[in-house]
Amino acid sequence: MTALLMLDLLTRRFGGITAVDALSMRLEAGEIHGLIGPNGAGKTTTLDLISGLTAPTSGRMWLLQTDVTGDPAHRLAARGIRRTFQNLKLFTDLTVLQNVMIGLHANGTTGVCEAIISTPRQRREEEMITRESMAALATVGLADQADRPAAALAYGYRRLLEIARAIVARPILLLLDEPAAGLNASEAETLVGLIRRINAQGVTVLLVEHHMDVIMAACSRITVLNYGQKLAEGTPTEIRSDETVIEAYLGRAGLEERISAYA
Amino acid sequence: MVLVLFILVPIVYPQEYVVHVLGLAIIFAIASLALQLLLGFAGLLSIGQAAFLGIGAYTSAILTTTYKLPFELAFLAAGLSAGIASLTLVPITRLRGVYLAVATLGFTIIIHLVLLNEEWLTGGPFGILNIPWPSLGPWRLRGETSIYYLCLAILVATFIALRRLIPSRFGRALQAIMLDEDAARASGIDLTYYKSQAFVVAAVITGFAGSLFAHHSQYLNPNDFTFWKSIEILLMVAVGGIGSFAGAVTGAFVVTLLPEFLRAADEYRMVIFGAMLIVFMGLGHRGLAGLFSAVAVRVLQRRPLAEQAPAPGLSRQ
User: Fold this and answer.
1) Which residue range(s) make up the domain with B218?
2) Quick one: DSSP state of residue B5?
3) What is the predicted pLDDT for the residue at A251?
4) How many structural domains compose chain B?
5) Other CB atoms within 10 A of residue A156 CB
6) Is there a domain that residue B173 lies in?
7) Do A105 and B183 touch (CB under 8 A)?
8) How far from A28 is each of A100, A165, A177, A215, B219, CA to CA, in Å?
9) Does A88 touch chain B (CB under 8 A)?
10) Is B227 part of a structural domain of the chain?
11) Interface contact flag, B180 A53, Cβ < 8 Å
């Protein structure tokens, strides 16, 4: 297997707090990798580092053997790293379709003058962007909502819209930050199906999630963080039986309860 | 329909004064359209627009007086020089909100001082006199009416250009930045590049407006381009309604013409003008454009506003 993404001793400090502490990690191409840990373990900061929204204090990061340490977010996005946000960052004043179209920004080339003159090339590009965006909306099941304002969507639909915006540009790595937060059991089940379908199209997924049933159902490997450090890594079965993980994160009773609920 | 009205005005009211003031309002409408792009669609609060207006005006005036260049060239050079000048703002595009506003305010103050003190170039406090009427190819546009129509044509072109820009890749990038910077970055948008480009586009348009201003007044004075002018342009956008191009044009007319209408009130006119601004702003940040659309919705639906949005207390009964 080839490593899609490699983190080497990646560290991020905020003042006196070390949010991510010397994290080394490998994402294999084509896997769905879970990233779990208690609140404040550094999961979201890890996603911020990988997506370039935060620059690392030290350490290195490689994407497909290219050193991309410290690259800004827009360049990493153009290289194929896309993400969703835990607290939903939609362009709420725009329509659902326009939100997704913005995800294709890096795939377009036309600028101010071409838009003003409305050249044939510009119109073709707009048609392409609209077509691809509608296809992404269809993938997540929001095609019939295309012309509604994003702010008018129900909560679960907003989560799906973020995913559509992230996958429309056919990324190689998709970072999902708690996509199941606030969803009910059947919505979460649909979400797992969606993540699997996206993964089947060749998208490697890094999934941060508190819903253990979603993690256990979707992931082939899991990394556990605690206080910014890697606590454990392995298959769902290994993680379930890992003593340190159970102590630090799940609590014995909690884990058994969750597993029995899922099984 | 509105355009027909604009075209008819000089025919119905051929008084030079009326046409002159309306021409001035049209020029400011162009400038406020440019600020609307920045403020209403990129969330960039600029109090530096008078500087670009001044740079455009002086470029055009100097090229047509000292260097005797034709108006068409001077007009293009005005947009170009304002656009190039705006590149000096690239380092401050990372600032937000009030900080950006204050930095652009500083830019206006500097440009005003340059216009005031570089006498060899700008004529200093005496300004530039005898700026020629504009020419278009073989035609020389003499008189208030012909320059009025020239300004109107540029206004319409600017309006159409900006309306096309908003639903484009560029326009979407600006709106994305305005609505959520992190999500815009994660979607592949380079913030500094697009904010800078927004400033350049707005500066070029404002430079064009400055050129028209120079040839419309035929006289330039540095005091036309103090930070007060920047504030006035901001007022036009705010009164008209942030986020609406039609609102920016309306706002420019209100802010330019209202003090003229209030001339009868003599020394109280600025007091009344100030009070009206407060009332306009009290209507909410959507300004006149928001007011018109709210009224239109009410008229079209033919029912009182209270029925559309019942108060929480009433709906519980």
Assistant:
1) 16-303
2) H
3) 62
4) 1
5) 16
6) yes
7) no
8) 27, 23, 19, 17, 70
9) no
10) yes
11) no
A108/B169 CB distance under 8 A: yes
**Which distant-in-sequence residues (6+ apart) come within 8 Å of A73 by Cβ?**
A51, A52, A53, B182, B185, B186
Confidence of residue B303 (pLDDT cuts 50, 70, 90): low
What tens-digit pLDDT sequence spans chain A (263 residues)?
Answer: 579 999 999 999 999 899 999 999 999 999 999 999 988 899 999 999 999 999 999 999 999 999 999 999 999 999 999 999 999 999 999 999 999 999 999 999 999 999 999 999 999 999 999 999 999 999 999 999 999 999 999 999 999 999 999 999 999 999 999 999 999 999 999 999 999 999 999 999 999 998 888 999 999 999 999 999 999 999 999 998 888 887 776 565 555 666 666 65
Q: Say whether B164 and A116 touch across the interface (CB within 8 A).
A: yes
Q: Does A127 touch chain B (CB under 8 A)?
A: no
**Is residue B249 assigned to a domain?**
yes
> Is position B308 within any domain?
no
The verdict on A89 touching B (C-beta cutoff 8 Å) is yes
Q: Helix, strand, coil proportions of chain A in percent (round to 5)?
A: 45, 25, 30
pLDDT over 50 (residue B307): no
Segment B291-296 mean pLDDT: 78
C-alpha separations of B75 from B89, B143, B198, B308 in Å? 22, 18, 20, 50
Whether complex ipTM tops 0.90:
yes
CA A49 – CA A5 distance, rounded (Å): 12
CA separation for the pair B184, B63 (Å, rounded)? 42
Structure tokens at B187: 């979607």
Reported as half-sphere exposure (CB side, CA atoms, 13 A), residue A42 has a value of 26
Chain mean pLDDT for chain B = 89
Chain A residues in contact with B182 by the CB 8 A cut-off are 53, 73, 85, 89
State the best of B41, B187, B208, B244 to mutate against chain A, taking most chain A CBs within 10 Å: B187
Query: Residue A3 pairs with which residues in a beta bridge?
Result: A28
The residue of chain A nearest to residue B158, with distances taken between CA atoms, is: A116
- State the best of A102, A129, A174 to mutate against chain B, taking most chain B CBs within 10 Å: A102
Pairing of the two strands B139-140 and B135-136: antiparallel
Residue appearing with tokens 């070029």: B204
A91 contact B CB<8A: yes
